[in-house]
Amino acid sequence: MTEPEVVLLEQRGRVAVVTMNRPEKRNALDGPMRCAFLGVMDRIRRDTSTRAVVITGAGDKAFIAGADISEFEGRSPVDQYRVMRLPTVFDAIEKFPKPVIAAVNGFCLGGGMELALACDIRIASSNAKFGQPEVNLGIIPGGGGTQRLPRIIGLGHALRMILTGDMITAEDALRLGLVAEVVPAEVMLDRAVAIGELIASKSPVAVAAAKEATRASMSLPLDEGLRLETALFQLCFSSEDKAEGVRAFLEKRAANFTGR
Ligand code: COA
């Protein structure tokens, strides 16, 4: 019997749906899954017809229940150092030139939470549960959780989650601004794809520039961020998409963006 693919890729119009597929292990992220994920993202990056990505978890129990804890046992500090020097799924998502949407179904814990934090938009099904439970294992978040979580929900709420390891509900996540929307589980993937399609109807040049400029606000001082915004704004002015967008508005018709 052949092994099932650990990361699935399905095309829905101009949106790529990436499914983490180890439901029997609550889609825990192990080495082969990280590797397969990076390969799939590379394919999507090169496919110009794909304009947005949705990431979700197989089954109805989990988005991703964290790093695969069984890999930690017996791993030496040097082995761990080597693993953490490899290209990470978190950086791949954050730096991805197309928008990435996390469609969070069920448990979203540890490295799964950190993967969702690296995404541009998060939506959750009403049964989703979020947590950074690393302290329960005697470790801390290592995929960006200590840095991205406070930037998204603020220091106090982030510290509460990271220091207690407690899970929060989808409704709590909505209240804290961790997710943009909570929807019933049965419609969540369709909703995430619809958001992706909405973005896909915009100029890919503008969308990529908007992602880069907005993300830069997390790490750049204001004056440098404003300079980057100005440079990217000017870049948009050299695009065919800008000419088409402005012309379409003046001609009272829908724009047809090509990404050039
Ligand atoms: N790493 C490795 N295996 C994991 C895992 C993880 N992060 N999360 C779940 N699994 C495995 C379980 O070991 C179990 O395997 P088994 O059937 O071979 O025994 C299987 O997935 C199902 O998990 P189970 O605990 O029985 O399911 P549940 O629905 O009752 O609970 C969780 C789900 C997610 C609450 C629970 O599995 C859990 O707490 N996982 C660890 C979460 C975590 O600490 N993540 C951070 C890692 S740094």
Describe it for me?
With 260 residues, this protein is an alpha/beta fold. The chain has two domains: 7-200, 2-enoyl-CoA Hydratase, Chain A, domain 1; 204-250, Lyase 2-enoyl-coa Hydratase, Chain  A, domain 2 (Orthogonal Bundle). Helices cover 47% and strands 16% of the residues. It has eleven helices and ten strands. The chain has helices at 31-46, 77-85, 89-94, 111-118, 145-153, 155-164, 170-176, 185-200, 204-216, 222-237, 240-250, and strands at residues 7-12, 15-20, 52-57, 62-64, 100-104, 107-109, 121-125, 129-131, 168-169, 181-183. It has a six-stranded mixed β-sheet with strand order 1-2-3-5-7-10, with helices on both faces. Strand 1 (7-12) and strand 2 (15-20) form a beta hairpin. Helix 4 (111-118) packs across helix 5 (145-153), helix 5 crosses helix 6 and helix 9 (204-216) runs antiparallel to helix 10 (222-237). Residues 25-26, 28, 61-62, 65-70, 107, 109-111, 133-134, 137 line the site of coenzyme A (COA).
Determine the oligomeric state from the structure: single chain
How many separate domains make up the residues? 2
- Output the CATH topology of the largest domain: 2-enoyl-CoA Hydratase, Chain A, domain 1
Order of helices and strands: EEHEEHHEEHEEHHEHEHHHH
Separation of the first and last Cα atoms? 46 Å
